User: Fold these one by one.
Assistant:
Number 1:
Amino acid sequence: MEKESRQRAETGSQQAETPGANSEWNFDKVPDGELVACCYWEYARESAFIRSVRDRCLQNHRAGDPCDQRLHADVQTIQSIGYPSEVFIRGFFFEPYVAYQCEHEKLPNYRHPDAPPITGSFPKAWQELPMMGRAWPLIRE
């Protein structure tokens, strides 16, 4: 009986380390300095309205239609929460898994090392983002 419970405990700890599974609900490993940004990000992931706006932003970008007034109004609604909306909205018009910035000054997609990140990773879980995508020093309170 003791051996069986030990095996279950070991299996449970192995499952806890499975990427993707715990990142949806267990935030114990999120550093204190990322907690506020993480909360905004995860809230946005759960919002049907914000996810819908993200989908429409991608469709708009793919179609090359810069004049969608309803989409513009909805983006402004999201931005009305203030600077924290930048955590997730900054990459709304970008395709996932594409590098939109580089550190080479002569290229058009140059990103200053101190600039906030641009990511097309929304709505990926916060803990699955690359460290660069989690660098939001001004989102603390």
Number 2:
Amino acid sequence: MRNTIYIIVILLFTAGYAHSKTSKNGSITSLGEDPVKETNNQKSSALQFKSKVDSIDYVNNQIIISDGEKGFNKAFIILSDSAIFLTTNKTLDHRIFGFAEPSKKSKRLLLLSIFTSDVETNPFNCELGAYYDTSGMQNMKIKYISRSKDFIKALVIETNTGKHTTIFFERKCVEFMK
């Protein structure tokens, strides 16, 4: 079922992208022949993307949202050594950003995602990189520090230099293990 939804979203996105036009302000209007102008109380029915990265972000977020909480692969925190890891699961999608501050609006430092469009070429320019799972993070490990209501605080440690970066993950994206 999830694969069917994924295919439909990609087909719709591809069809809309093929017929997109660039508006006067440089934004790309997808899923329509012409930009829909807002008048009075009407809202634009066309999706507007300022860049390819915005469209990737939108499409992949929609897939994760459609999966719901049960269909979402989470990162695990092993309480005995505070290690955080994520393995790819072919039946579950995942897309987990690590932020500079405990806010989804702060700078994105790291991305763990099942989607090639998220990982290939690191389109979000995450300083610590974009990976399919933690096994791809060569010479880096993630250690849990603390949690709050909505976020967990962790350190990304470069094992060859000892350099560390504080990072925050949404609490809903991790699960604690004993």
Number 3:
Amino acid sequence: MKKTIAKKVKAVALVLVMGAGVIGGFAKIAEALTITSVDPEKGPVAGEQDVTIKGDFNQDMKWKQVAAGSGYTCAIASNDQAYCWGFKAYGQLGDGTNTGPEICSSYYYECSKTPVAVLLGDRPDLTVKQITASERHTCVIASNDQAYCWGWNSHGQLGDGTNTGPEICTLSTPCSKTPVAVLLGDRPDLTVKQIVAGHYHTCAIASNDQVYCWGENGSGELGDGTNTHRYTPVAVLLGDRPDLTVKQIAARYAHTCAIASDDQAYCWGYNHYSQLGNGTYTGPELCTPSTPCSKTPVAVLLGDRPNLTVKQISAGEHHTCAIAGDTRVYCWGTNNLGQLGDGTNTGPETCAFYVCSRTPVAVLLGDRPDLTAKQIYVGHYHHTCAIASNDQVYCWGLNGSGQLGDGTVATHRTTPVAVQLGDRSDLAVKQISVGGAHTCAIASNDQVYCWGDNSFGELGDGTDTNRNTPVLVDTSSLPPATYTVTIDVGGTPALCTGVVIATDGKSLKCTTSAHIAGLVDVTVDDGVSAKTLEKGYEYVRDGGGGSIIKDILSPDTGVGRVVGLLVLGEVVVVAVGVAIFFKIRKEEFR
């Protein structure tokens, strides 16, 4: 249960948001929030006016961020809680178990085919700000700006100071089935700004803009100058560039990358396939006699484009991609399945056992050279996806399970292909995440769609059937979307209470509260986005319907003068349903 949050503001009032009812059941329309009109358009300053607001008011749970792991998926919902689905034998779903509620595929894997809530244990007051999913463990940044992890803990990747528990999961492996706090050791003063999970290691950017990593370190992926496993965070050593800070990080199988404050990319860890992008696959060091690596960050070499900067970076198992300052995508590392997107799967070079590129090569956009890239995500294994400037998703590389989303299976692609949205071609895409052999995205209606391998229920559609085009994640077992009021202390808010949503989700009804006269903005907030109809309603003194309440809030001081309606203290918002507030425009007082 999300804890009620009290916010201090200058103009103070006690605000209670009424719970939302639904006429005839939940509206299953999966549309983005919109407001088109208010009927009637005016009413008395005394309030108590029933109004109908028309638009799209979807009751399905909405999503803020999605993170695809290997065989499972997690996401943050509009109620700021985390939910996961898919493979759960190692406790990576965080619901307190590693068994059931279902068995997926012919392999008899423990799974959940639809989202289950992550249990925050002794911290139910916390909400979730960011989530990352990996091979078999998951981590979040909570509302207290601290990191929490759960799942497999064989190499200390949970950061709780051990590699032996705190519990035991499948095949006697150490794990935690619910989140445990990452221990910051001698830096308890630090908070966490970004977190990423590799296969068996984890890294974070702390509030001092430095990177700290923990977990497996056999290939130098922790960047601390050693190849010793660490059970709590250690600082990444920036070598001869201690002046640099870090803006973004990415991690996967056994290497880690970052964008530093000079807008250049740096990588460290395993380098057998040139995934570090430093022009070699034999070093610069050896972590074992047969493991080329770098134990500290090395600069990615931009070849014939040394003037380029880097805007975003993403790491895969054996390849890495970035969006450069020219908004184009460049990739490096192994290329045996076309995962570099340069139109080949034959080079341009050779690294160890596979064809590769030892430095970045440009991804070819084929018949859409006009497009640029807004977001890039490299999968756990051998495929890559990007959101282009037209807000559509394009993928390339391995397609053995339909993870490219182009309607085919086993047709690998050496250049980007468009994901087929079928009968929802009207949707744009806001965020993507690429797992082991599946892909997920949040569309413009704030719903999650997934495609590719579904052996573990990782697509969340209630089945374990693979899909080669996107399917909607099933939220029918989850609570309805949580709506809250945003109080603008510069205006004079008043609630429209007793909200009831129509069955078709195309309108809602509520009752106005008392307010001073004037034109007001009507705002609805669904927890992910807020929409405002400017000057959508007018309070009038001759509107009838009860006594006239004058000057509820003084336009000069913003201080309440009507005892019982306003109190000194804090604004309290109870977020259990839809709420609408009317914001007065002070220049239009009558």
Number 4:
Amino acid sequence: MRTGNRPVQAPLHVAAILDGRISRPCPVELAHAFPSGMDKIDFLLCASLPSIDQLTMSQVAPTASDFGTFGELLRFLRQRSRLTQRSLGIAVGYSEAYIARLEANQRNPNLDAVRLRFVDALQLDETSDWAERLVQLSADRRTSAAPTAEVNTATSASSTASVVPAHPPTNIRAQLTSFVGRNYEAGHVRRLLQMTRLLTLTGMGGTGKSRLAAHVATDLLHLYQSGVWIAALASVNDGAQVADAVARALGLEVPVSADATAPTAPMDGMEPGPNAAAGHNASVGSMYSAGMAHPVNPTIALLKTYLHDKDALLVLDGCEHVIAACAELAVTLLQSCPQISILATSREPLNVPGEVTWQVPPLSCDEAQQLFMDRAQAVRPDFALANGDAARLDEICAKLDGLPLAVELAASRLRVLSLEQIADRIDDRFHLLTGGSRVALPKHQTLQAMIDWSYDLLSEPERLLFRRLSVFTHGFSLEEAEAVCADEAVAGDAAYGLTLQHADILDVMTQLVRKSMVELDEQESLSRYRLLGTLRQYAHERLVKAGEDALLQQRLSQYRRDQKKRPMVEDEE
């Protein structure tokens, strides 16, 4: 081996490399040979040197007991298995940066994760001494860190701790009901959070975004030195109050602003960045492109200072009605605070650079039935399925589209109705599914209120198209929506005061999909769309109330007649 023009002797012991004590004839030259920021062992591999186990086995082979820290042993075993930090992270569900912190002994390893994932990923099943040592050092590290770990108070301006406390701080409250199902979804969200600093869970109201986010955040608490914090935004009525809500969630005292009504965008008086115009929705993009200097929001300044060196997870729960302010705040904090991550829940994406979005699906049929039974036995502890009830329960859950909120509201009706009576009335779901928890937000107390909330957040063109799409009972294509729902499709529409033009349909449909009001059917080679049964019933009631039902039914019938004639015309030609 050579460094420059001079030969370099192979290391006598891998531990000497791992902790920086490299025993070589010319250590200064070798130190200069490392590219800036590159792991020393990775450099050896990139320089096409023999593998670590070849180097050591020919000299003095290390044993598991030679390693005194978890990070040192993890790095050696990773390299011995020919894994990069990134590939190991993918295998165990952690980010590359988190693996690097584990190897630098800057994070406390999770003992269960080490046993169940790291041992397998590092191919230690048949090497019990290495596996036992890795688990032992993992346990030792958490035990030794516990007495000295300090939980930062909310008024602390910075943190100097280098390891995760045994009990990181959080404002997550204990849940009063069980978390049913969602094993795949929870695991997938955890994996996504290891790969991105900004993850937004989207989906229509009632799909359980908030509960899933809280569940995952609780699971990941041990990974964040400065804790996990949930800012509930559903009761925030003004975008200017979003930063205040986040500050209060962190336990900070919100400063009194000199001008409480000062605009909040661009956040903190930031000048537009070089790529600020890309990937934003209209409102957010216009804030950047305006390039106007606004007064510094003192709460934003406080958050930036407090979170600058914090390793924390922020959960922005319920962003859809203050979406622009949430988007601006997320960008500002992620740019100013390099160690924080943000998990947002919203009915539409924040639409900012670096965001990863994932749509929370409804419950599967089995999970929905399990949830119904769990909540049913809370109101009637003796409740059990009788003959024929299994089919009725299946029908109820199917007609409610597997929406957790709807299923819970249906189960609560068992106080006064039998399962058969609920099944008989389920088609009138908006009158049946009322009477949610007294402590729940108003929008979560009835199925009607939940969808009203989403509908009210739509623009007028979006509401118009949404209710018109209810004439399609089994899904539709973009071409069908354009033919039936556009105002110029039938002469004389102007008399009805309708304003949706053929050219508008694509853009408005895109917004409805983004806002979780219309589903894209990705199983078809040609994109098709559909409304969930619950949403379709709501939209149709709105269509009838607007006096448009007869007109749209006429258009749909005319379109189908035209489609039937088309093959005959082509045959004659």
